[in-house]
Amino acid sequence: MTNKTPLDAEYDAMTKRASPPSDGLKNAIKAFVSGGLVCVFAQLLFSLFGRLGLNEQQTKAAVPITLIVLTAILTGLGIFGKLAGFSGAGLAVPITGFANSVVSPAMEFQTEGRVLGTGAKMFTLAGPVIAYGCSSAAIYGMIYYFFILKG
User: Fold this and answer.
1) Is the Cβ–Cβ distance between 19 and 29 less than 8 Å?
2) For 52, left (φ over 0), alpha (ψ -120 to 50), or beta?
3) Which domain holds residue 69?
4) Distance CA 33, CA 117 (A)
């Protein structure tokens, strides 16, 4: 049994006021539509780069690079945060969310200097994603190699 202090009760009440309940279905639809729009935009970029003469391998590299650069610019201008706030996970999950998670802390901590501010804080959010993503990829690669290719 936990004993709540008056401060705990006050904090709980303040949290409930600041965090109104969300409409799960509405949020899911927003995320689905906005994530789909990112995919449609990426497909349009893929088609555009192909028409501009890039081969398939170059196009596959140019599309994510373009999405990352556009997200970084929109984050810097303060536009991406507003879009992500409206659409939720639809923009947070794809590569656009990853780019935003690198640029936002870099901007926030730039006043602390290039090394201890921007450099140290840039991967605060993205670092664990990179670490666990690489680890997962290595494990999946070993499983694939030993059980599927060698199997």
Assistant:
1) no
2) alpha
3) 24-108
4) 36
Any domain includes 89: yes
85 contacts: CB under 8 Å, gap ≥ 6: none
Token pair 């373009």 is at which residue?
Answer: 66
Place of tokens 């650069």: 69
- Asked whether residue 115 is domain-assigned, the answer is no
Per-residue pLDDT of the chain (151 residues; tens, 9 = 90+): 567 677 778 888 888 887 777 788 998 999 999 999 999 999 999 999 999 999 999 999 999 999 999 999 999 999 998 998 888 888 887 788 888 888 888 888 878 887 877 777 888 878 887 888 889 999 999 999 999 887 6
Domain count, the chain: 1
Q: Which amino acid is at 13?
A: A
Burial tier of 149 (Cβ tally within 10 Å: 0-12, 13-18, 19+): exposed
